[in-house]
Design goal:
mainly alpha
């Protein structure tokens, strides 16, 4: 093997391993959400997560990948439409890694975006309405805005910067989730007539904590793999910096959320602390490759504070998000994108803001349209009786904890 083939093989292997780590994040989201919902909805949330992953893989294979990376008009607004993955690359053709490896790495990102939605709509959405939305999200909505930046579209031409997806993945998922939650309304009993907010604690906090640890681990592939190569001296050093920055941002987000929780509530709220770590990871994802470790720690810490106030503000406005997904992925994603110019030469706050507005507007508007069509055709929400009984029984016919009484 010559040097080019060795580099090609090394980069391909690295991309595949990082993709596998990101795929493992699907398990993290499943565990986190299963731990934060009530026991009577556990089976349904697990079924949503594992099925959404499979739907994302199939739809992105058939349609999404070609939309996102198949080119488009000169304006960079309208992408090309095609099917399948396309021809394989070869080391003598100038490619740095296999196109199949690139597809695998990209498809697990799509699945991550759908996982964000499942937690926000938990405990009251019809299972098949969610699945049908996932078909559209992973085949059209996500790939179009992905093309605008990562596929060389107009956001990329403007100089918008989003290294691993604070906007393309996380803000997009949060926007789709918010559009659904606004149409769904809150869970029954969440808000009293007097404005009182009723706590609906999750059934398994050890499981939720395990979910965050899995996500934390998977994020090294999420951010580290986004360098796409590791075969050169410079690439290897950047990857090492990305790993350190990702880890510090998560730690900073967790500690900041812990201190904020102690200040606001007088106690360390585990659910807030877990979301603090997640927010730190989301925020640093926009630019984990350029800041110093100290700046990465700061970016994650700010996200850990913001996520708590965002969760409280959404609750106050009767936007019921059982797992805090909209805050952790949306608000932290916005902050991460705005923080890019702090460490990235040439990055513009104005362009970053334009990118945020474009991504949010596209995903929110198109998602709202799809949700409204689904609402008219089949309805989005289960009946009040089914919600009271729990979606495990009404949608799945199984109980996650049959030896215990549902709460």
């Amino acid at each position: 093997m010559d040097a080019n083939q060795i580099d090609y093989a090394l980069n391909t292997f690295y991309l595949l391993i990082c993709g596998a780590l990101v795929m493992w994040m699907a398990a993290g989201f499943a565990m986190l959400e299963a731990g934060l919902v009530r026991s009577k909805n556990t089976v349904e949330i697990l079924l949503k997560n594992v099925s959404a992953y499979a739907i994302a893989c199939v739809m992105y294979f058939f349609v999404g990948y070609q939309i996102m990376y198949g080119g488009g008009t000169e304006s960079g607004i309208i992408p090309s439409f095609g099917f399948g993955i396309g021809a394989e690359n070869a080391p003598d053709g100038g490619a740095d890694y296999s196109k199949m490896a690139d597809f695998f790495f990209q498809v697990v990102f799509v699945a991550t975006a759908t996982s964000i939605i499942s937690g926000a709509v938990a405990e009251r959405m019809k299972l098949w309405a969610f699945f049908l939305f996932c078909l559209v999200m992973t085949s059209i909505i996500y790939p179009v805005q992905g093309y605008w930046h990562w596929g060389g579209g107009f956001l990329n031409q403007m100089g918008f910067s989003d290294f691993a997806g604070s906007g393309i993945v996380h803000l997009a998922g949060a926007a789709a989730a918010l559009s659904a939650v606004l149409l769904l309304g809150p869970r029954s009993g969440k808000y009293g007539k007097d404005g009182r907010i009723s706590a609906m604690p999750g059934a398994n906090l050890p499981l939720a904590t395990l979910g965050i640890f899995i996500l934390w681990l998977g994020w090294f592939g999420f951010n580290g793999g986004s360098q796409l190569k590791i075969s050169t001296f410079d690439d290897a050093n950047i990857v090492a910096l990305v790993f350190v920055n990702t880890n510090l941002a998560a730690a900073g987000g967790l500690i900041a959320a812990l201190l904020t929780s102690r200040t606001l509530f007088g106690k360390g709220d585990l659910t807030m602390v877990l979301n603090g770590a997640l927010a730190g990871l989301v925020a640093i994802t926009a630019a984990p490759h350029t800041p110093t470790p100290s700046v990465a720690l700061l970016v994650g810490s700010v996200a850990g504070v913001l996520v708590i106030f965002a969760i409280l503000e959404l609750e106050k406005n009767k936007i019921d998000d059982p797992v805090g997904a909209i805050s952790a992925h949306g608000i932290a994603g916005i902050w991460g994108l705005l923080a890019v110019p702090l460490s990235t030469p040439g990055a513009s706050f104005k362009v970053q803001l334009i990118g945020i507005v474009v991504i949010f507007a596209w995903v929110f508007i198109t998602s709202s349209a799809v949700w409204m069509v689904l609402k008219m055709v089949m309805g989005l929400r289960v009946s009040q009786e089914e919600e009271f009984e729990g979606l495990d029984i009404s949608e799945c016919g199984l109980e996650a904890y049959p030896e215990f009484t549902s709460n």
